[in-house]
Predict the 3D structure of the following.
Amino acid sequence: MELKANQGRRKIIEKEGILLETYPNVFVVKVNDDQTPRRMSYSYADVLTETVEVKIKENNMRIGCISV
């Protein structure tokens, strides 16, 4: 999966990772960051407010809310 996250102050990160775990309020993604694997967690509210954008890599499907 591809992950794009807004971390404030014009800092946006783009990473590729693997969805490790899902919980009722958050999900955990494992990313390889400069040879060191890291676990990053985000809430589903981050996806709904478009702070985090998630794309499935195989078909480039964007997961999130639809703007009307």
Summary: DSSP finds one helix and six strands in the chain. The chain has a mean pLDDT of 84.
